[in-house]
């Protein structure tokens, strides 16, 4: 009986280990660089001598984190809730809807308005008036403390 070599089937397989290695390296690179990529508009708040910090405004009750409304120098509105990133470019109606919803969840959350020092005063007054009409009872104005 003669020896017959085994016939091997050809299999088409892709080795995915190098692809997984590349993807893990890319994931690490994106995780490391993500905190450095920030988008936003610098708002130069007016300075005052009797400014209080947000923690002082909230007191000891810790009923909720502040709701921050930001008005940049072009009059565009931004909103930050629960110390999250500022969501910019919101229309006034959307901003008021989000604030009402947050105040229903956390009625003790202070509402703070920060306006750029170069913004026309009318933009700040319009924002304060809209917040008042939306049922926000108390609004704080954000400032920077004067350096001495």
Side by side, the strands of the main sheet go 4-3-2-5-6
**Main sheet overview:** 5 strands, mixed
Secondary-structure element string = HEHEEEHEHEE
The residue fraction in helices comes out at: 25-40%
Task: Walk me through this protein's architecture.
- The protein is an alpha/beta fold.
- Helix content is 33%, strand content 18%.
- The chain contains 4 helices and 7 strands; from the N terminus they run H-E-H-E-E-E-H-E-H-E-E.
- It has helices at residues 17-33, 54-58, 92-105, 121-133, and strands at 47-48, 67-71, 77-81, 87-90, 111-115, 139-141, 144-145.
- The strands form 2 sheets. A 5-stranded mixed beta sheet has the order 4-3-2-5-6. The protein has a two-stranded parallel ribbon with strand order 1-7.
- Strand 2 and strand 3 (77-81) form a beta hairpin.
- The protein is elongated.
- The mean pLDDT is 80.
How would you summarize the topology of this molecule?
Layout: H1 17-33, E1 47-48, H2 54-58, E2 67-71, E3 77-81, E4 87-90, H3 92-105, E5 111-115, H4 121-133, E6 139-141, E7 144-145
Parallel strand pairs: 1-7, 2-5, 5-6
Antiparallel strand pairs: 2-3, 3-4
In a few lines, what is going on in this structure?
With 148 residues, this protein is α/β, with parallel strands linked by helices. It contains 4 helices and 7 strands; from the N terminus they run αβαβββαβαββ.
Please name the defining characteristics of this protein.
148 residues; alpha/beta; five-stranded mixed beta sheet; two-stranded parallel ribbon; elongated
